Amino acid sequence: MLVTLDTNVLYQSLHSNLGALYFILNKIRNREIQMAISVPVFYEYEEVLSKQGSLDNFELDKEDIEKFLRYISFIGKVYDPYFLYRPNLRDESDNKFVELAVASQSDYLITNNIKDYKSSELRFDNLNIITPGKFVKIWRNNYA
After folding, report:
1. DSSP string spanning 69-88?
2. Which of 19, 23, 75, 120 fits 87 for a cystine, CB–CB 3.0-4.6 Å?
């Protein structure tokens, strides 16, 4: 199974070691789920997770985040999305996640901000945007 993770999912999974977010991160670490990444998505992960406020929230230092990001770059399946269209979401930074999910043919785009993704003028038949909690329920029903 291949997933695309919005930055908020990684952020919150580092902030808390409980719940659906941590479950997903563990499945990726155990290679039960594969994670799609692209250069623009990776740069956003790096920018958001490396901010001083993020480091303070995680109670981690910059080297810890650098190790985490190196690990993501090692285990992630890299895609190079290029399209002549943009999903045209309200938050421009979310477009890169839709592009990656479509280019990689991810089974799911996992985010805590579903409403932000529903404003697109474009519709993709095979794009499943779900919350981490719903993903865990699907996983447990089909793979546990």
Report:
1. HHHHHHHSEE-----S----
2. 120
